Amino acid sequence: MKILLTGSTGYIGKRLIPVLVEAGHEVICCVRDPPKRFNPPESLAKSITVLQLDLLDQASLEHIPKDIDGAYYLVHSMSSDGDYKSLEETSAKNFRNALKNTNVNHVVYLSGIVNETELSKHLSSRKNVEIELAKGDYNFTALRAGIIIGSGSASFEIIRDLVEKLPIMITPKWLNTKCQPIGISDVMAFLSKSMFNPPETYNENFDIGGPDVLTYKEMLLNFGKARNLKRRIYTVPVMTPKLSSYWLYFVTSTSYKLASSLVHSMKVEVVCRDNRINTILGITPLSYNEALKRAFSKIENNEILSSWKDAYSSSGLNFNISEFIQVPSFGCFKDSRTKAIENREASINKIWAIGGNTGWYYGTWLWKIRGYMDKLFGGVGLRRGRTNPATINVGDSIDFWRVLYADKEEGRLLLFAEMKLPGEAWLEFKVVDNKLTQTATFRPLGLAGRLYWYSVLPFHGFIFKGMLKALAE
C-alpha cells in the first residue's frame, strides 16, 4: 500500500517511518524543507519518497500523488508563534480538500485525549482538527493519547529534567491532576495496526493509554524511584498558570511557549474512556514503569531496533542497522573531536586494538587510576581487559566498557561504560571520509552526575585530544 505521512520530521513521524517500511508499505514523507529538516538514514531513504509541501500552501498540496491508499496526519503547532489554533484548523481543511483529488481510503490522526467539557487551548485545537478531518470523503480514525513516555518526547524530557535536577520541588497544584501515560512503542503499535483495519477502526475515535492512571506527582515520584533518586514534592495553590509556565521554563529545557501550552493542558484530566481499542488490535500496553525502563535503554530506540533488525534481514532490503543506533543526545554532555587521517586502515586497526594490554594510547596511567577508583567503589575496574585480544564483537568487554556496536569495515565502534558512575556514558569512534570522529557522551543522573562531569572536564582536554591524535597518526 502507498501511504502519505505528514509530520515526517516530528518525534512520532520519524519513528513511524521504519515501522511502515517494515510492514511493506510504500511511504511518501511530506516535509516542508527536506534538505534542512529531513535526513533519513541512507538505507531507509531507498524505501521512501520525499515530497516537499506546506499544509498552509494549497498550491504545494497539488503534488500529493493521486494513487495513495492511506494517510497519517501527525501535524501539530503547539509551540509555534501566533494563533496556532487557527493555523491547525487551516492546515486540516487544506489537507482534507487536497485528498479529494486522490484515491485515499483511510486517514489516521494522532490527537490528544479530550474527554473533559472544559479543554485547554491546546487540546481544544486538537479536537477541532479531528472534527475537520472527519468531514472528508474517506474512512477516518482518530487515536487520542495522553502523555507519551519515550526518550526524546517533550513530556518525558520535561519529567526527566524536573526529577534529575531538583531533589525537592515546590510545585503547582496541577501536579495532582490525573493522566494515563502511554509508552512510545505502544503508540507505534496502535498507529501501524489501525491503518487499513476495517471495519472496527473506520470512522471511530479511540483513547489510547497504558494500564496506569496516575497523577503527575505520582509520575514524577515513580520516575525518581526508577532512577534511584529520592525526591520530595510539595504542591502549593498559589501558582498562577503564568507563574507555572515560567517555573517550567527556568527549571527545564523547554521553551516558554511550549511550557505555557503544557501547563494549561496539565490542568485537564487526560484519562481514557475505555480500552476497547486494545482488544480490537490485540495490543497490551506497557505499564508506566515498563515504559520508563524502555526509555532508559542503553541506546535510544533499543526496543524498536530489536523488532526491526530480524524483519529487515529477511526482507531483502539493503538495511544498515548502524544508521538506527544513535547515542542519546537530549540532556547529555558531549566531548566530540574530529581529526583527518592519512591511513584509514591503520587508524581502524589501532581502534580495534584499544584497551587491555594495548592501553588507551594516551594518558593510560590516568585510565588505570580511574580503574583503581572504580574497584574501590565496587566496580569492575580495568581487571577484565579484553574479551578477545585480536577481535571485537558486540557484547565483548574492553576494560570497564561493554561493546554495543562494532563494524570494522564500516569503521564504527560504540562502547557503553560499566564503571561506577552517577549517570551513563558512551564512547564512540567513527571513521567517515578519511576523518576520525571520537565522541564521549555522558547522561548525568541528578545533581551528582552534573557535578561529576564538570569535575572531570579539565582532564578531557588533554586525554581525549591525545588519544584522538594517536589514533589518527
Summarize the SSE layout with pairings.
Blueprint: E1 2-5, H1 11-22, E2 26-31, H2 34-37, H3 42-45, E3 48-52, E4 70-73, H4 84-98, E5 106-112, H5 121-133, E6 139-145, E7 148-149, H6 154-165, E8 168-172, E9 178-179, E10 182-183, H7 184-194, E11 204-208, E12 214-215, H8 216-226, E13 232-236, H9 241-251, H10 256-266, H11 276-281, H12 288-295, H13 302-313, E14 333-340, H14 344-351, H15 364-376, E15 397-398, E16 401-407, E17 412-417, E18 423-432, E19 435-444, H16 446-472
Parallel strand pairs: 1-2, 1-4, 2-3, 4-5, 5-6, 6-11, 7-10, 8-13
Antiparallel strand pairs: 9-12, 14-19, 15-16, 16-17, 17-18, 18-19
Helix pairs in contact: 1-7, 4-5, 6-8, 8-12, 9-10
Structure commentary:
With 473 residues, the protein is of the alpha/beta class. The protein folds into two domains: 2-311, 3-Layer(aba) Sandwich (Rossmann fold), CATH 3.40.50; 319-472, Alpha-D-Glucose-1,6-Bisphosphate, Chain A, domain 4. Helices cover 38% and strands 21% of the residues. It is built from 16 helices and 19 strands. The chain has a seven-stranded parallel beta sheet with strand order 3-2-1-4-5-6-11, sandwiched between helices. A hairpin with a 2-residue loop joins strand 18 (423-432) and strand 19. Helix 1 packs across helix 7, helix 4 runs parallel beside helix 5 (121-133) and helix 6 (154-165) packs across helix 8. Residues 301-317 have low confidence and may be disordered.
